[in-house]
Amino acid sequence: MKITLLSGSVVGTKTQTTMTIMQKKIQEQYPEASVTLLDLKQLTLQFSDGRNYLDYTDDTRFVTTTLMDSDIILIGSPTFQASIPGTLKNVFDLLPQSAFENKVVGLVMTAGSAKHFLVAEMHLKPIIHYMKGNLVSNYVFIEERDFHQATIVNDDVLLRLDKLIEDAIVLTKAYKQVWAEQEASYDF
Questions:
Q1: Which label site among 11, 23, 156, 188 has the fewest CB atoms less than 10 Å from its CB?
Q2: Residue 105 is part of a domain; what is its CATH number?
Q3: How many CB atoms lie within 10 A of CB 139?
Q4: Centroid of chain to Cα 26
Q5: Alpha-carbon distance 159 to 98, whole Å?
Q6: pTM of the entire structure?
């Protein structure tokens, strides 16, 4: 099972911290899974110009092909101006419309206050649905107060991250079984 974590910002530390914690949790709890962390801070992406995702080079091609080859994609996004960052939107623009078809997608949002809890609902979920992703029903919302010195200090948040990971893996296994049964039922 290929799991990709996407830290969707080039500034700040909360989303990056969260995705690193999730990477460690997955590696410890599911050692059989192949886990890749795509941290946009560490990568140089080209702006989308409408080309096929395979026509890009360097980090841009690495990001797009990694996402396209994944079974599970866990996206971490900060809240900027009551929306998602442009860097994350650019990643979506680099991919084809059906990029998340037959993939399970989970969401983690970080924000300065509880006032932005609907950003995932209003901005990210519609994009994931449009790109044919199978969303884990509950996302994790993490506020400024849940962090201290580059770590998550709220045990409830850590439990919700564990549940998001578990739900994504369970959904992926279930979907794969159903899709395999459906494929086997065809006569051709």
A1: 188
A2: 3.40.50.360
A3: 21
A4: 14
A5: 31
A6: 0.95
